[in-house]
Specification:
The protein has helices at about 5-10, 20-30, 45-70, 80-85, 200-210, 220-225, 265-275, 310-325, 345-355; strands at about 100-105, 115, 120-125, 135, 140, 150-155, 180-185, 190, 235-240, 250-255, 285-290, 290-305, 345, 360-365, 370, 375-385. With about 400 residues, it is α+β, with helices and mostly antiparallel strands. The strands form five sheets. Strands 1, 3, 4, 6, 7 and 8 form a six-stranded antiparallel β-sheet that branches. Strand 9 and strand 10 form a beta hairpin.
């Protein structure tokens, strides 16, 4: 529902435009028996009224309709007004966090030892013109006979945009002797990156707080506790009731912007809920990463006629990145994303691809029906973007 606060003022009899205000002043002038008859636009009297009455009144009406009234209510408040609203229910915005996890380094051969120094940079290919970088957070030495090994990394900057899907972090801008490749796997994130909490998820937490006042034995209380963790919104938490492990038990399935969180991250949530007393007496509440279902897609792309080779390559790369964004592997495109308990429309995805890429004539998917989900989230097991004949 969209609330029209300006119309609310009109319905209350408040003039909201300069013409309406001028009419009110003229009617009052007549009612008071004023002898001033010159109502011309150039009349010194009406120019004075406009300067000292109409213009300030218009400022006040605009302030009421566009700022004061919308920020009187949680549903339409924003910015610092929302911060004050949330303070009233004992909430503050969550700060931005840095993505942290590990990458897999593969050696040319397993003979001898090799050391990767702290501060080593690993990059992504350009995604919508931006290159994301991770930095190794400690020095790691691979022993003789060890072909692959893990190295802890941290994002160069804070934010959810660094929570990229498998395979994106794959470039060593400064090659390291003895290292054949580097990559991030699907479960590479130990701690997801997050932006400073935006208005919409902050509103959801504040709204939930009204239901969580008891703090025990109901979904709202657990939602309030779980959504304290960076990157988790109240609408990203799904509960399974009906005593899955017997009376007094429930499960919570959690997702983040980049899909399912790592088990280590969920373990930290379980520790907070279960081991530090943030649960109802007798409750047995366990959180799990949102279950995933594999989806394999082949996208056959038909560019507009006579497109140059360079633009064709860019088109294929862009389409691939946007499709991956729909499956939550990056956040660089405005595209409808997958959700549990929903129908992911392939026809809608095609429409959005056409809107985003003017050089696209047509695209066909190997899937012939929409993706319908329950308590699970679609994940790309493979994506092939190929040029049509």
């Amino acid at each position: 529902m969209t609330v029209d606060y300006r119309q609310m003022l009109k319905d209350a009899g408040v003039p909201t435009t300069e013409l309406e205000m001028d009419k009110v002043w003229k009617d009052l002038n007549i009612e008071q028996g004023s002898v001033i008859q010159n109502d011309s636009t150039w009349s010194p009297f009406w120019k004075l009224i406009t300067a000292i009455v109409t213009t300030p009144c218009k400022w006040l009406v605009d302030l009421l309709a566009d700022t004061a009234l919308p920020n009187t209510f949680l549903k339409t408040s924003s910015g610092i007004w929302l911060d004050i609203f949330a303070w009233g229910v004992d909430l503050e915005r969550k700060n931005a966090t840095f993505a942290q996890g590990f990458l897999i380094f593969t050696r040319v051969n397993s003979v001898g030892a090799v050391t990767i120094p702290a501060g080593t940079i690993i990059e992504t290919p350009s995604i919508s013109g931006y290159v994301y970088r991770l930095i190794t957070s400690e020095e790691v030495a691979a022993a003789d006979g060890e072909l692959t090994f893990q190295i802890p990394v941290k994002a160069e900057n804070s934010g959810a945009a660094y929570n990229l899907g498998p395979g994106y972090y794959s470039i060593l801008p400064r090659p390291i002797p003895g290292i054949a490749s580097v990559k991030n796997e699907s479960d590479w994130l130990d701690i997801p990156g997050a932006d400073k909490e935006q208005d919409e998820p902050f509103k959801l937490r504040a709204q939930n707080q009204f239901s969580a006042v008891g703090q025990y034995h109901h979904d709202a209380a657990y939602t309030a506790d779980i959504s304290l963790f960076a990157g988790i919104r109240p609408d990203y938490i799904y509960f399974e009731h009906d005593a899955p492990r017997g009376p007094g038990t429930a499960n919570g399935f959690i997702m983040i912007d980049s899909g399912a969180p790592s088990q280590d991250f969920v373990d930290a949530i379980n520790n907070y809920v279960r081991d530090t007393g943030h649960h109802g007496h007798g409750d047995d509440m366990v959180c799990f990463p949102m279950p995933l279902i594999d989806v394999a897609i082949v996208a056959t792309v038909y560019p507009v006629a006579h497109l140059s080779e360079e633009k064709t390559v860019a088109l294929l790369q862009g389409l691939g990145d946007m499709i991956r964004s729909a499956f939550r592997e990056n956040s660089n495109y405005e595209v409808t994303q997958t959700f549990p308990f929903s129908r992911f429309s392939l026809s809608r995805l095609k429409e959005e691809l056409h809107l985003a890429f003017k050089d696209l004539q047509s695209v066909e998917f190997s899937l012939n029906q929409d993706i319908v989900t329950g308590m699970n989230l679609p994940e790309l097991s493979s994506l092939t973007v190929e040029l049509g004949e």
